[in-house]
Write a structure and sequence with these properties.
The structure is a homohexamer of 283-residue chains. Chain A is of the alpha/beta class and 283 residues long. Chain A is 35% helix and 18% strand. In chain A, strands 4-1-5-10-9-6-7-8 form an eight-stranded parallel β-sheet, with helices on both faces. The longest helix of chain A has 19 residues, at 262-280. Chains in contact: A-B, A-D, A-E, A-F, B-C, B-D, B-E, C-D, C-E, C-F, D-F, E-F. Bound molecules: manganese (II) ion (12 copies).
Chain lengths: 283, 283, 283, 283, 283, 283
Amino acid sequence: MQDPVHLHFADADTPYEDARYVIFGVPYDGTTSFRPGTRFGPRAIREFSFNFEAYDPAAGIELFDVPVTDLGDLMVSRLPEAVVDGVADFVRGIVRDGKVPVMFGGEHTVTVGAVRAVGPEVYVVCDAHLDLRDELDGTPYSHGCVTRRVLETVEDVVIIGARSGDREQFEIAAERTHLYTADVVRERGIATILGEVLDMIEGRRVYLSIDADAIDCCLTPGLGTPEPFGMTPLDLREVVRTLGPHTAGFDYVEVAPFDAGQTAAVAALLVRQFIVRHWIGRC
Amino acid sequence: MQDPVHLHFADADTPYEDARYVIFGVPYDGTTSFRPGTRFGPRAIREFSFNFEAYDPAAGIELFDVPVTDLGDLMVSRLPEAVVDGVADFVRGIVRDGKVPVMFGGEHTVTVGAVRAVGPEVYVVCDAHLDLRDELDGTPYSHGCVTRRVLETVEDVVIIGARSGDREQFEIAAERTHLYTADVVRERGIATILGEVLDMIEGRRVYLSIDADAIDCCLTPGLGTPEPFGMTPLDLREVVRTLGPHTAGFDYVEVAPFDAGQTAAVAALLVRQFIVRHWIGRC
Amino acid sequence: MQDPVHLHFADADTPYEDARYVIFGVPYDGTTSFRPGTRFGPRAIREFSFNFEAYDPAAGIELFDVPVTDLGDLMVSRLPEAVVDGVADFVRGIVRDGKVPVMFGGEHTVTVGAVRAVGPEVYVVCDAHLDLRDELDGTPYSHGCVTRRVLETVEDVVIIGARSGDREQFEIAAERTHLYTADVVRERGIATILGEVLDMIEGRRVYLSIDADAIDCCLTPGLGTPEPFGMTPLDLREVVRTLGPHTAGFDYVEVAPFDAGQTAAVAALLVRQFIVRHWIGRC
Amino acid sequence: MQDPVHLHFADADTPYEDARYVIFGVPYDGTTSFRPGTRFGPRAIREFSFNFEAYDPAAGIELFDVPVTDLGDLMVSRLPEAVVDGVADFVRGIVRDGKVPVMFGGEHTVTVGAVRAVGPEVYVVCDAHLDLRDELDGTPYSHGCVTRRVLETVEDVVIIGARSGDREQFEIAAERTHLYTADVVRERGIATILGEVLDMIEGRRVYLSIDADAIDCCLTPGLGTPEPFGMTPLDLREVVRTLGPHTAGFDYVEVAPFDAGQTAAVAALLVRQFIVRHWIGRC
Amino acid sequence: MQDPVHLHFADADTPYEDARYVIFGVPYDGTTSFRPGTRFGPRAIREFSFNFEAYDPAAGIELFDVPVTDLGDLMVSRLPEAVVDGVADFVRGIVRDGKVPVMFGGEHTVTVGAVRAVGPEVYVVCDAHLDLRDELDGTPYSHGCVTRRVLETVEDVVIIGARSGDREQFEIAAERTHLYTADVVRERGIATILGEVLDMIEGRRVYLSIDADAIDCCLTPGLGTPEPFGMTPLDLREVVRTLGPHTAGFDYVEVAPFDAGQTAAVAALLVRQFIVRHWIGRC
Amino acid sequence: MQDPVHLHFADADTPYEDARYVIFGVPYDGTTSFRPGTRFGPRAIREFSFNFEAYDPAAGIELFDVPVTDLGDLMVSRLPEAVVDGVADFVRGIVRDGKVPVMFGGEHTVTVGAVRAVGPEVYVVCDAHLDLRDELDGTPYSHGCVTRRVLETVEDVVIIGARSGDREQFEIAAERTHLYTADVVRERGIATILGEVLDMIEGRRVYLSIDADAIDCCLTPGLGTPEPFGMTPLDLREVVRTLGPHTAGFDYVEVAPFDAGQTAAVAALLVRQFIVRHWIGRC
Ligand SMILES: [Mn+2]
Ligand SMILES: [Mn+2]
Ligand SMILES: [Mn+2]
Ligand SMILES: [Mn+2]
Ligand SMILES: [Mn+2]
Ligand SMILES: [Mn+2]
Ligand SMILES: [Mn+2]
Ligand SMILES: [Mn+2]
Ligand SMILES: [Mn+2]
Ligand SMILES: [Mn+2]
Ligand SMILES: [Mn+2]
Ligand SMILES: [Mn+2]
């Protein structure tokens, strides 16, 4: 009897025990303010993972030679605080087992739980939004408060690609984070900026969070809160290639598959880039 | 200077003070379990209201002769309990001013707030789902708990068109509600059933809630939790025409405009039916 | 060299000279009031014509044995009066050549031109709308005035399936047309009604116009002005089968392909029904 | 660590060894003539399986009490003959293990492989199309030849709901199958017909194949070759309830999710109906 | 009682009397030649206005501190000449009251009316098309004739981003306008070109019209007549920032929301840019 | 009687005998691995051809002055080998008549047939994929084997824009083709690369194949197997302008119109560019 094709992320078929990378999704979009749909992000990223060849020509590696597993989706509640707690519990297990969590959102809120479990010293986020509100729509666990919550638990926060926030958030960002707006990325070039970020990290434990809306919504419009005038997919590829090997926890969030698939296609490829680059850079 | 066209429900342009019917939307879909999108329900119903002639030939009335206002949308929180509280506060004002609330969901959860404000003795709901869970996904204010919450505050509950629930909910429905499943509606006919319901009401204060998924999803698929084997739009028209004049509060919820507009078209027409029939039956 | 597949209505490949039926489209939707898109009707109907087998089992005929041609689309102006004139000129040529025009709309307005050219004594229209306004949005050649314009040129008008119009239009319909509303069709049955219509026609020259919105929008939602509570496709099939053989000109208008294709599928099948039944009933 | 949600058909989480029902998909649509997309059928049916409560109120059973497994998707080739062979091999394993195959198409062609493995004496198919061509588009393993291929291997063929085929196919159907067209189903009622079919079966081994286009495309338009004037979902429910307990192999094919989900919703519910009714009727 | 959320452009809630900027839409698309849908442009731009933070970090201003009103939509006719007249009348009122009109199309034709009312000396238009036909599809008031009509009433016309027109239009453009094609913008840079334009304006009264198709359709595909090889959203931002303060009337037309929202998102942001930059540059 | 508008590629109305360029489509997508839909490519490209002015301002030519014909679509089988044979037969007729074939896919597989008929010495392909597999999904005539099949029959193969393949394909490409990956195009510039290619061609007979996925899927997402990090439409325009005049056969394949039309719009314009540049460069 032939083996039927699996429904998980392509080539993520190592048994959990032997896996170094643990993929899982959190299809939660309960605090979304503009349009919902990021709950379908994990499904879309998995589907598009099958669009690509397993071989990464730049790295010279076949993805099926890297020990990756996909545990499916985690869904614990519709209340944001409970979701964050559930994610934290789940990721703690992964970290305890010495594995690297690779989480697919869902809305950005889920990152708060993963960061809590990974316990990084530096948090690097690519995002169109500052996400530095203290509260939004009645909860401190909103997609608009993610970086603010993380800020309370790490030593350094780096924000790349931001272009949206209220006056207060921009003030907080200026004082308490390393902010590289999208306009700054365009002017100075992503490579220069990543050099500065690497210097600042100085070998500390990093969590890397990609909010899909960091990329210009004219290039990848499948987003809950789309913003023009953003970064390019090539900028993001550079971020993942450069910072990936230094990262203890990774997520890709806020994909809302309203488009013809390009947003999920970019996500699936960048997730693979992260895994491949981290694997090459290991030891 | 010509007067620009308004963005509200068609012909709902009476000033609030003079209005008898007060339309408003609650674009909340935070606890949705299957697919989100009912937050776009109010917008879709308003858009389709402009598709129809103002004249109701069966009633012989022009809608612009009925005093209706549309206050726009109410959005207070992403936490279900706070949303219910906000709706209750808002509707209390409408009731206090002697007007009839006509609410567009959003998910069914918003009904709990409106019922609390209207304070009916009998609650009649058309719904594919029993909505009798005590809790779902971490909250008692979920779209799956609406009828259970209402059951705690009214004398009688009538459920028409249901065909989905777990074993416990069907037991509760059998013991504590007047349940007419969709199969029963098909077998006995909606007119017969409505006769029984009218007898049971006996002139008491009624709240009428239409969950759009009461209708078969093959006829109106623009729903968050679509169910086949349901009621027809004609059945619903009969419900609204028969019970409308006896109703102190009305809502139409769970329209998620994924389709070619038919679900919102039916909703807009039935909302008008309610208003027209209530207006004719006044005195 | 093999013959490439044509882009016209399936099996409509008889040369014009030898054809008895002349298909053409008028992709005009300039006066549409709710949502545009009927300009894509002809294209959609042609595409779906290839979905079906050529054989009509009820009639025992293969469509490729009937002499049909498809001349493509006619587009002359964006001004409704000029469009009507252009259609009238075009159809006059077809009629002069002793052929039967089979027109695909576009909006209903194009019918005014075709009727003018065919010169029927009786006009039968299936439509959700009375289309009896004298003027709409600044022109007497609007989709809302079609039946009114036709009324000025024929002896008898039969309206089947209507359920929308203002008070004045319903008064005109009562006085000057044979009106069978959708509710009446449901109550009395289409067969009974068609018997009455046949008696009334008494062998006179008939033009049959199908406005796709005659059918309930829950069954075929691909429409510019969708209306629930309408006729069924089976009702329409009965109309076409019964009246088709008596008809000198035919059109199918107002298909706006927003849906998954069902509206165009029904249209393509009913166009074939018309052609097949007319062909069988000839001589 | 909490258990993440699985990606399979809802509640189909029994280990293969203990399962009585074995779900798998064959996302093949290579011979599709009108529009492709049935390859997405298995995915859509699985997604919609999560839309429903596990409880079947008519049967009084919770689906999670029935031993079902879902093996994911099988994809072996793009050449129809190889696909048929692959399916046959795969299903032979399931049958040898004493389990009941429950296959999701993909196009109807996959049924030929499953029937070959199950080896029924009677083949019952609900389908808008006769599928009795000997060859189509260069292959005898086309979606238009399914029933013809099966006819070569079974004692009796029953076709329910057909309304499309060429003259030759209707002749073959008349001579060599038990044909109940959609018009006949409407006239005589599905219950009467199923009584006849049960009598004819006389306890022999049955394979039941549901081509989703048996249902009227105005009710479920998510199809590769949509046909109006068809059966209703309630008719299909009756077929599955009545014949399900007598069936050794089952499939649901030709769902192409272009619509708002209603076609997959009906499919998911009818698959459950089959499993539940077969389970109740076992021993 | 809480205040319900309004349905207008975000933060455009100053009373008309106190407003400096007057937003209104003209949902007209009657002369559209390729695909209709710009009638939904005003609705889409308003919806996406709620996607953005009120704060403009580059300008250091909160939009709610700028006196803006939104009057809703204006719809007067389906005949292009009457629409132009209606817009002219309406805008004359706004201008007479000393306010700045900010109009959302609808098709480009509406600009002719607004320009007539504003009476500028210089007309600057960003457009993929020359729009210099004298007549199209039977009317001189077509979307293909806009710049030709305006040319008859102003001193100077500047066209930026054009790449489509017939031979005659390119000859007229060369002789009678300042034409910067999209290729020229790419080669010389938008900043250089805007320097030349500012010099040419010399403080005269300017009307600025943005046809959304000036931007490359691969970046913003939600258009009635999409053209590749165009400008970027960043180019447009530069145009609005540079010329905005010198502008007496502004419009953004031809958004047809077929895409995932990116075209309306860019439009909403650029409308805000115009208002903010004009407000900062006032006095 | 006015002439109705044709359904073919815009301005491709020269009789076959007089035509120099022969357009035809092959709506085949039977071996597609990720998502089907390229069968709708020819239809979409034809539709979008009507979006553009006939005048090419860079070339100074009106398309209707170039002798082009459109023969419609060719569909011979669902088996890939038979499709390739059918295309080869059909193109042989065109070549024998001294005309230039301009083919619209359908999937890339159809190119194998056209190349076989044209018999070029050099094959230039723009493609995201190497297409160098010897076999895929059971057939050597798969969309993943196109360049491998062609490699067996020509002297030189040039691949531009590739970024996807397995390890073995990259090894074959390095040894047996002139490979310019998308990253190389970005680094060195398309003009430089085209200079090298022209030198290498040295006046030999060229076939130019454009796989639409050569372009970055964030710019044109209407693709069967979308890949980010690709070429731009401007790069492709340069390829067509530079190599077009040297080309004996041309195709544009793999357009799958899932998007808002931008992919088909780019295709239609580049097809015109090819024809116009080849016509100018003739003699
Ligand atoms: Mn974020
Ligand atoms: Mn963000
Ligand atoms: Mn409910
Ligand atoms: Mn419900
Ligand atoms: Mn009409
Ligand atoms: Mn109508
Ligand atoms: Mn079949
Ligand atoms: Mn079928
Ligand atoms: Mn323009
Ligand atoms: Mn333009
Ligand atoms: Mn290729
Ligand atoms: Mn490719």
